[in-house]
Amino acid sequence: MIVREGDARQLIKELDASSIDAVYFDPPFNTGRKFRLVPNSNLGFDDIHPTDQEYINLIEPVLEQSKNYLKKEGSFFFHISAEEMMIPHMLCLKYFKKVQPIFWNRSRSKNNVKNKLGSVVDVLFWCSNVDKPKFNLVYQPLDSYYAENSYKNTDSRGNYALGHIVYSRTQATQNQDRHYTFSHNGRSWKPEYGWRLDKKDLDKLVSENRIHFPKTEKAKPYRKIYMHESSGKPCTNLWDDLHSIAMGSELRKYPTQKPISLIQRVIEMSTNEGDTKLDPM
């Protein structure tokens, strides 16, 4: 791994066009505050900008340049507080075709707040210029309620939940190879809106005893999802399982430092091993 350190506004000019797979941009948030690692320390920065336009002048060139160096299916992540998200949102929409907000619940409730709502949410704007940027499925831990109430079925392999293998009306497929009749033990099914998997894959699951056939005559079959095989739940746009450094065991070396687990998720979901990542600030 090669790491380049310096003024990102200058170093980025040394990059080749369309050479970056993912950008994580964590600029000052325009809070009007001074941040120091400890009181009377020089380590930190003043997040003070007399006007919104001066703040825009700081961050907009990074978006514009990053777009030029990003690969076609690359992703740009803009990290900002929920309180200051409007300006970054408008700028992201200006430079990128698709902008999806991810909400990071970075901490629990604030007990010392008396005259306002506690600030516990940051936003990561996930930006791209294609409808389907590079994406790897990542997982979050199963919440306790789901784990306790979903894996109620059991067989010789273990406890399992039920996963849909039939499309609903709002998901109806036009793929004709998903409209077939399936028979098992004298019973037959041909879902009106199609199967979620082709017949070959369904036959394989049946042969491995991974299909749940309900006793009710007209009920649909389901896929068995075993608890001991689960990687968790597919990640949503609410990240409430990653906490700030203040709530963890990482050593804080900078006043607005983000946890490794957050950066790791961004990298894992948007890049592959060997891809080039850029942190421009």
Word description of this protein:
The protein has 281 residues and is α+β, with helices and mostly antiparallel strands. It contains six helices and 16 strands. The strands form five sheets. It has a six-stranded mixed beta sheet with strand order 15-5-6-4-1-16. The relative contact order is 0.18.
Fraction of residues in H or I helices? 10-25%
How many β-strands, per DSSP?
16
Structural class: alpha+beta
The global form is elongated
Please give the alpha-carbon distance between the first and last residues.
Answer: 19 Å
Report the total helices: 6
Rg of Cα set:
24 Å
Oligomer: single chain
- Percentage of β-strand residues: 25-35%
Low-confidence stretches: none
Mean pLDDT: 92
The largest sheet is: 6 strands, mixed
User: What order do the helices and strands follow?
Assistant: HEEEHEHEEEHEEEEHEEEEHE
The largest sheet has its strands arranged as 15-5-6-4-1-16
